[in-house]
């Protein structure tokens, strides 16, 4: 056994020391110098090849590889998970690129309690109309019973107009479409949807407020006269001329000079034979124009049960008094002007819902593709090394063969040169 091991070791040593991959079958095979060069070249070739193999293996092992993966029929949860891990490379093409807003948006308005309160009910307006009939016989310009009916009718109209404006605008808004070729990430999608909603609210509010401004400007610019005797007609039938006198004053403010003149309504007991003054409703105004006066007013009195009861008993006899409760001061600010409420479209609170799942379902991506980098496992590393290293030995061997051939040519040329020099005749 020991002898066998020795023979094997001797054979391996002889093979390694005499290994020659550049041996050429030619007439100079017995040239020991040429063989020695070939053996040295073989050793250099093997060492260089091994060094390149080690460097290549280490490089491929340490360099991350980029992989592309595809997931079919992804769910919203899978998409969100993939986006959190691969935000830059994730791509999910939508099957439907045009998505209506009403698929993923739900918007509802909770209106100010004024618009659903008894203050705009037909029963309360009927009571105010009766109070107006009682006051027509008395020359009290600022009296609540004379003007409140028209003001609360106008308030009801503003509520109705605001609701119709929102309804029509919302229908148009939700009929718009969102164009997306790729699925939008949830965070970006919600930001865009919120931006759409904010812009829509702003445009709708501006539209409603411009309408109010146009009405106010038209009234004042054309000096239109209200039917509740805020201004006077002086008519001369015989001369067939009509004279309008609008120089009405409210707290020393002339309506000819300003449309914003106003003063508080005064409460009288209208059902008495001789009306008796009770108090001013300090935050509820009468003025040159109904709309201007109403917008400057607040409903503080109607958030106070005592004040409301006083108003109720003053404009109607006890047998016809209207029984209602005050507005809820915890829902809205009592000192908020009608102008402020109207500028917000009489909306107390918006209820909005943005559904990313509905958007994703309608978008219906059939697949998602993403890229990620990772180090190669052993099998992939071996495959990559073999793929790159495959043709390298042959190329390197050819380089060495050319180098040996050049060395042989140079060697023979030098031998021939020196041989000729030695055999040339010497000078006498």
Write the layout of secondary structure elements.
Layout: H1 2-18, H2 32-62, E1 65-72, H3 76-85, E2 91-92, E3 98-100, H4 101-104, E4 105-111, H5 122-135, H6 144-174, E5 177-179, H7 186-222, E6 232-236, E7 241-245, E8 249-250, E9 253-254, E10 262-268, E11 277-287, H8 290-296, H9 305-315, H10 338-343, E12 347-354, H11 356-363, E13 367-374, H12 378-389, H13 392-423
Antiparallel strand pairs: 1-13, 2-13, 3-5, 4-12, 6-7, 8-9, 10-11
Helix pairs in contact: 2-12, 2-13, 5-6, 6-7
Q: Give the distance, in angstroms, between the N- and C-terminal Cα atoms.
A: 73 Å
Count of beta strands? 13
Order of strands, widest sheet: 1-13-2
- Return the string of H and E elements: HHEHEEHEHHEHEEEEEEHHHEHEHH
The major sheet is characterized as: 3 strands, antiparallel
Taken as a percent bin, the fraction of beta residues is 15-25%
Number of helices: 13
- Round the Cα radius of gyration to an integer and report it: 50 Å
> Mean pLDDT, nearest integer?
79
Low-confidence stretches: 227-239
Quickly count the domains.
2
Features:
single chain; alpha+beta; rod-shaped
Give an overview of the whole structure.
This protein is an alpha+beta fold. It folds into two domains: 89 residues, no CATH class; 272 residues, no CATH class. The chain has 13 helices and 13 strands. The chain is rod-shaped, with a radius of gyration of 50 Å.
Task: Produce a short descriptive summary.
This protein is 51% helix and 17% strand. The protein has 13 helices and 13 strands.
